[in-house]
Amino acid sequence: MRMGGIASGMDTEALVQALLEAERIPKYRLETKVAETQDKLAAWTQLDAAVSSLYSKTQALTSYSNWQRMSVAAGSSGIVGATATVAADPATYDIHVEYLAASHRLASDPQASTAEALSLSGDFTIGGQPITVESTDTLSSIRDKINTASANMATGDKVSATIINSSLVIKRQETGDTQISLADGASGVLKSLGILDASDLVKNELQAARNLSATIDGIAIDSSANTNLSSIVNGLTLSFTATGDSTLTVSHDTTFIRGMIDDFIATYNSTMQAAEEQTKVTLSEGDEAISRGLLQGENLAVALQQKSRAFVTNRVTDPGALDQAFNSLQTIGIWTESRDNRLAITDSVKLEDALTNNFALVEDLFRDYEGGIARKLDGYLNSLTSPIDGSIVARTTNMQTSITDMYDEMDKIDARILRLEDQLWEQFARMEDAMASINNQGSFLLAALGMDTGDKKK
Predict the structure, then answer these.
(1) Of 94, 103, 206, 457, which is least surrounded by CB within 10 A?
(2) Rounded distance, CA 190 to CA 146, Å?
(3) What is the reported pLDDT for 356?
(4) Contacts of 393 (CB under 8 A, 6+ apart)
């Protein structure tokens, strides 16, 4: 507890606080500057996110693998389908499917019951696995034994057994011209079931084993499988699903490219809008500024808008860099429009025609190393957002460092004020002691001069 003014009558607390408040003025200035810097840092962070998003779109537009994507269109649906890799060649293939690959399928004779004991005993082999039949087995239990044994069969021998009506149906799991491997035992269980005849031949064949039979551009195709065939046409994975005639047209995936262009335009416009919002000045009717963007006057933010617009509206006049028929975005139907000067597809027919008939030239327009518009913009955006030496990253890093330094300085001011407060109270305390001593001496002198009130009365 501190008390002052006992001897002097002064309001020591008020004097100390007034002196300390004067010392706090630099801290208040720093607090204001920190708030302003934090607001600017937030604005730069938002703008950096927008620029980074635009950078991801230019990276997509300059990616070799994206421009090499291929698409496949079938002339008749339901006959053949395909997917393409970048290795596929643009072409149209004539397809004829004579018949599809089929799994070998056979059946037993109809049985009197599926749930009553068949009174058969013995063994047989299917798919290389022995099956033991006991006199108490029913048709259902024989089915179950076959399915259990299938788990141990080689992949090409695996079968599945079902019961339809009262017949045991056995199907090879894989398609192709390989038959189900069957061998009856000495007791003739398979013959008794009507699966094999007296000559050990299949008695009830439901589906013959066969390979796919088709032609592609007149070249015969023979395959044990119908789907996921990747070794027939380079770069294509084929799947045959029905018989008949069709075509497959392999071409550049213009739909995917168009999607990338649409994404780029939308992101470019939103990025430019974000930059404009941060740098604009709104005026009142009297031409007096009533609001300013947080980055108004920041050269880097202004340059972002100017340089980006210059890149997308650039016309490359060097014929060694780009074909002059496709030397600007305007030549493929993309240009600026409206009062906001936003990028837009102004002629979608022209764009689709360019992608369909001059794909390589459109690719050059975007990603050529010498004249590619997206390539140049990509390099500029990288110079802004690179985590190593990007201009925006450097700006935000410096601001963060500045904020940290200002907080450190404010901590130093607080510490200095605490020391000053102790010093002031100590000085005022000495002053009070001195004044108390002076008052005492004054009283003593008055008394010595006979001015003491008690003496006068005598």
Answers:
(1) 457
(2) 12
(3) 94
(4) 48, 384, 385, 386, 387
Q: Alpha-carbon distance 196 to 124, whole Å?
A: 11
* Residue ranges of the chain with per-residue pLDDT less than 50: 453, 455-458
Residue 457, pLDDT score: 43
Element (H, E) at 124: strand 122-126
Give the angle 413-416-417 at the CA atoms, nearest 5°: 85
CA 291, chain centre distance (Å): 36
Q: How far apart are the two ends of the chain, measured CA to CA in Å?
A: 45
The strand ranges marked E within 212-303 are 212-216, 219-223, 236-240, 244-252, 281-283, 289-292
Residue 420 burial (C-beta neighbours within 10 Å; 0-12, 13-18, 19+): middle
pLDDT for position 376:
96
Give the helix/strand (H/E) hosting 345.
strand 342-345
**DSSP code of residue 331:** G
- For residue 293, give the amino acid letter: G
> Cα(415)–Cα(410) distance, rounded to whole angstroms?
9
CA 422 to chain centre: 59
DSSP per-residue string spanning 411-447: HHHHHHHHHHHHHHHHHHHHHHHHHHHHHHHHHHHHH
What backbone torsions phi and psi does residue 15 show, to the nearest 5 degrees? Answer: -65, -45
Which helix or strand (DSSP H or E) is residue 302 part of?
A: helix 299-312
Q: What is the DSSP string of 56-86?
A: HHHHHHT-HHHHT-EEEEESSTTTEEEEE-T
Integer Cα distance of 34 and 402 in angstroms: 8
Q: Decide if 168 contacts 106 (C-beta within 8 A).
A: no
Encode burial over 11-47: b for 16+ CB neighbours within 10 A, e otherwise: ebeeebeeeeeeeeeebeebeeebeebeebbebbeeb
The number of C-alpha atoms within 13 Å of 401 and in the hemisphere containing its C-beta is: 6
CA distances from 435 to 2, 15, 290 (A): 17, 17, 58
What tokens does 31 get?
A: 């607090």
* pLDDT attached to residue 391: 94
Q: Residue 368's closest CA among 376, 380, 357, 379? A: 376
> What secondary structure does DSSP assign to 26-56, as a single string?
HHHHHHHHHHHHHHHHHHHHHHHHHHHHHHH
Q: Are 194 and 109 in contact (CB under 8 A)?
A: yes
**Quick check: 37 and 397 in contact, CB under 8 A?**
no
State the pairing for strand pair 159-164/334-337. unpaired
